[in-house]
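Homework help board

Subject: predicted structure for assignment chain

Our instructor gave us this sequence and asked us to write out the predicted structure in token form, then describe one feature. I got the tokens but I'm not sure how to describe them. Can anyone check?
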Amino acid sequence: MRYLVILKAQQPDGPPPAELMAAIEALGVEATNAGVLLDVGGLAPSAAGARVELSGGRLNVVDGPFAEAKEMISYAVYQVRSKDEVVEWASRFMKVHRDNWPGWEGDSVISKVFGPEDFAPQQ
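My token output:
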């Protein structure tokens, strides 16, 4: 099963501590070596994006920035055996932030990614 994890956060002023970046890298290497981390990336602030909405049969495009308490700042795609397993990886990622950047707050949104097996006819 594949899962998309999107990290939303309010970051303290200043750059992330070097210890945090080293811990993130180590966790990423561990997840890659375990064969569960498929892709990661940072996301630009919402000012660089847009939102496409469909309401009442009409499309509406709204350019960022969006007034949100937390910005989406990164994503990761995992291939794991269960939701519990991806929750464990996301929790470890959050703990790395807690332990290495005082004042940092955020949340990880975990969504299952449908694959071809989810659309196969039932027998």
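Reply (TA_rk): Your tokens look well-formed. For the description, you could write something like this. The mean pLDDT is 93. That's the kind of observation they're looking for.
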